[in-house]
Amino acid sequence: MPDLTTTYLGMKLKNPLVASASPLSKKLDNVKKLEDAGISAVVMYSLFEEQIIHESQALDFFLSHGSESYAEALSYFPKMESYNVGPEDYLELIAKIKKSVSIPVIGSLNGVSTGGWVEYAKKIEQAGADALELNIYFVPTDADTQAVDLEQEHVDLVSDVRKQVSIPLAIKLSPYFTSMPNFASRLAKAGANGLVLFNRFMQPDLDIETLEVVPTINLSNSTEMRLPLRWIAMLYGKVKVDFALTSGVHTSNDVLKAMMAGANVAMMASELLANGVKTVPGILSGMTEWMTNFEYESVKQMQGSMSQRAVADPAAFERANYMKVLTSFDNRLNV
Ligand SMILES: Cc1cc2nc3c(=O)[nH]c(=O)nc-3n(C[C@H](O)[C@H](O)[C@H](O)COP(=O)(O)O)c2cc1C
User: Fold this and answer.
1) Cα separations (Å) of 326 from 295, 322, 329?
2) 278-296 burial, b if ≥16 CB within 10 A, otherwise e?
3) Percent of the chain with pLDDT over 90
4) Contacts of 247 (CB under 8 A, 6+ apart)
5) 134, 154 Cβ separation under 8 angstroms
6) pLDDT in tens, 56-103
7) How does DSSP classify residue 175?
8) Of the listed ranges 178-187, 208-217, 231-240, 291-300, the one predicted with least confidence
9) Distance separating alpha carbons of residues 122 and 51, to the nearest angstrom
10) CA nearest 256: which of 220, 291, 214, 307?
11) What are 264-280's pLDDT values in tens digits?
12) Residue nearest to atom 13 of ligand 1 (CA)
């Protein structure tokens, strides 16, 4: 039997299949089901900067205006509670999950700016989380914001969170950075132990009849993993962090590709949301079968074997590949 074990953020995992942050971790029962199905670690859904700030502002208002104004105070803020529980419940849930499962549990903070709210990193650690994932989700819309300043803000946020915790820290990033290798190494220097590539940005749609911007959340498909796959293959060995691939992981072949590119773990959300935990045993047995057929002894042996520094044609990940792909269409059209 091939050895599926891997390491991620200093933790030894029984296989590389990790449940990415999603509503599945909102219920202890679901996390137990993920563990029973064979998932090796679970990332909690995120606690948002806005939620933490909302709660403390609502409390300030309550203390200074008295209880009769409390409902009014709450109505000033977006109804975060409709899609997530408050910070204290979040911490309690982590503690409860930790007591009930034996797989590692990774807390998740989601925000953009430094400030008092990052203390929650410490609270997540105290609640028993084995590691912390910091999801920096920011869409720059201001023409005066310069890339250099934006990157510095990210780096500062990572060092601030790093100061709060001693558990391992992974940073979940968007793919929209000008010089990803440089930025990734700056994050590593600021204290990141792992990079989770990439956030899948929710693209709002336009309703042309009601003239409304419609928030949409579509589940992914396997082709979406090519973006993180390429970047992990290019960063592997250059930046001294662990890599988690997120976006588009649905099949055993997807997990195998992630490993060959250089990922320590492959994370899944859409596949679990669409097909439930029953999909997990098939993915793991598919990996075992493939590795047996192709005579791989372990996942470790596979990791990074198709990274940019390992493949025969490293330029295939770069501009040369772009030209080759474009010209391949000429042949198809016979032009
Ligand atoms: C319904 C839903 C809720 C999600 N909630 C979170 C979240 O709270 N925090 C976070 O970092 N990512 C969240 N994600 C993103 C996933 O963790 C994952 O990175 C992304 O969906 C890409 O992976 P996938 O192709 O396997 O879905 C969510 C995704 C979905 C579909």
Assistant:
1) 35, 6, 6
2) ebbeebbebbbeebeeeeb
3) 73
4) 197, 198, 200, 220, 224, 225, 227, 228
5) no
6) 655 554 445 554 444 544 444 454 444 456 899 999 999 999 999 999
7) S
8) 208-217
9) 16
10) 291
11) 999 999 999 999 999 99
12) 21
**Ligand 1 within 6 A of 172 CB?**
yes
Cα(269) to centroid of ligand 1, in Å? Answer: 6
pLDDT digits (tens, 9 = 90+) for 178-227: 999 999 999 999 999 999 999 987 788 999 999 999 988 889 999 999 99
CB count in 10 Å sphere of residue 217: 10
Residue 151 DSSP symbol = H
Whether 235 has a pLDDT exceeding 70, the answer reads yes
Nearest atom in ligand 1 to the alpha carbon of residue 224 is: 25
182 contact partners, CB below 8 Å, separation of at least 6: none
Length of the chain in residues, anyone? 335
Give the per-residue SS3 of 168-209: CEEEEECCCCCCHHHHHHHHHHCCCCEEEECCCCCCCEEECC
pTM over 0.70: yes
Which atom from ligand 1 is nearest to the alpha carbon of 135? 11
Best mutation site among 200, 220, 250, 277 for ligand 1 pocket (most ligand atoms within 8 Å of CB):
200
ω before 138 within 30° of 0 (cis)? no
Q: What is the pLDDT of residues 25-43, one digit of tens each?
A: 999 999 999 999 999 999 9
Q: Whose CA is nearest to atom 22 of ligand 1?
A: 247
Q: Which atom of ligand 1 sits closest to the CA of residue 270?
A: 27
The Cα 137–Cα 139 span in angstroms is: 7
Residue 11 and residue 131 in contact, taking contact as beta carbons nearer than 8 Å: yes
Mean pLDDT, the chain, rounded, equals: 90
Q: What is the largest CA-CA distance in the chain?
A: 77
In angstroms, what is the span from residue 284 Cα to ligand 1's centroid? 21
